[in-house]
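Comment thread on ticket #2218

A.B. wrote:
> Attaching the input chain for the structure job we discussed in standup.
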Amino acid sequence: MVAAAGASQQGPASKHMAGRAEGVSQNLTGVWSGRYFYPRELPPVSFVATLIETATSLTGMTHEPAATSTARYASLQGQREGNAVSFTKTYDKAQLKAHPIHYSGIINGDATEIKGTWRIPGYWSGNFLMIRSPGKVAAVTRKVAERV
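C.D. wrote:
> Ran it. Output below, let me know if you need it in another format.
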């Protein structure tokens, strides 16, 4: 197929890059403060997440208070496409690993907030909000660079 003079033809890769240029182009690597909400009258839960973005891949860790005195820790694995993120949170404790939690969210224009929904298929779902902690991006980036 030949494109007419002056017309542009975009494949999947160029559409992805165009979406990134028009939307959010900042790397998500950094420390994020978050809160997830239950669908009923249960109180929201605060958490801290450290995200590492490499190309379209997202990895990281979270920690949050637990009903007992020990904190809960979890690992994150996911991806980013333009201003959309999706990741799975898996808790470190054996009894919690059986129920991975799926998150889907949208990044705001200056990449300082991620808002979306979480779900445990067949059990629970709710909303979440993550806000990037200012000034900690450089420190996390530096630590990641030092590990390489």
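A.B. wrote:
> Thanks. Noting for the ticket: The chain is about 20% helix and 45% strand.
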